[in-house]
Amino acid sequence: MPHAHVAALEEQLRQAMLTSDLEVLDALIDPDLLFVLADGTVVDKQADVHAHRSGHVRITQLDPSDQRIDVHNSAAVVTVMMAATGSFGGVPFQGRYRYLRFWCETATGWRVVGGSMSDASQ
User: Fold this and answer.
1) Domains in the chain, start-ordered, CATH in brackets?
2) Kind of pairing, strands 109-119 and 57-72?
3) Distance between CA atoms of 31 and 1, rounded to whole angstroms?
4) What pTM, to 2 d.p., does this model score?
5) Alpha-carbon distance 111 to 45, whole Å?
6) What is the full DSSP assignment across 27-62?
7) pLDDT tens per residue, the chain (122 residues)?
8) In what order do the strands lie in the sheet with 109-119?
9) Are 101 and 78 a contacting pair, CB within 8 Å?
10) Integer Cα distance of 117 and 97 in angstroms
């Protein structure tokens, strides 16, 4: 998988997060996703998609910088800094977050299988 393809998938995911596009999120996130939030909470795909569906998560800005993509056979590791604003459970947030995502080639295409985010605002 070329670097450019992973970068395009990352952009599709970013846009889907901004618009809560459930169809795209479903297509790009593996059913067995494990993701660690900035507070240490581990969420799965069902919780992630539900947060968008219910409106619990609303993202109004998600501007990437400092992105690095390393491709390894049928997997890729991505790190990216995001300037983000929105609300979580009705509570506004704004900050810089470092995302780490693991993409893997599956029978249904390339999907996010794991990752984490950390608060990088300091």
Assistant:
1) 3-119 (3.10.450.50)
2) unpaired
3) 21
4) 0.93
5) 11
6) HHEEEEEEEE-TTS-EE-HHHHHHHHHHTSEEEEEE
7) 578 999 999 999 999 999 999 999 999 999 999 999 989 999 999 999 999 999 999 999 999 999 999 999 999 999 999 999 999 899 999 999 999 999 999 998 999 999 999 999 87
8) 42-43, 29-36, 109-119, 91-106, 75-88, 57-72
9) yes
10) 6
Please choose, from the candidates 106, 100, 109, the residue with its C-alpha nearest in 3D space to the C-alpha of residue 82. 100
DSSP letters for the chain? --HHHHHHHHHHHHHHHHHT-HHHHHHHEEEEEEEE-TTS-EE-HHHHHHHHHHTSEEEEEEEEEEEEEEEETTEEEEEEEEEEEEEETTEEEEEEEEEEEEEEEETTEEEEEEEEEEE---
Phi, psi of 47 (to 5 degrees): -65, -40
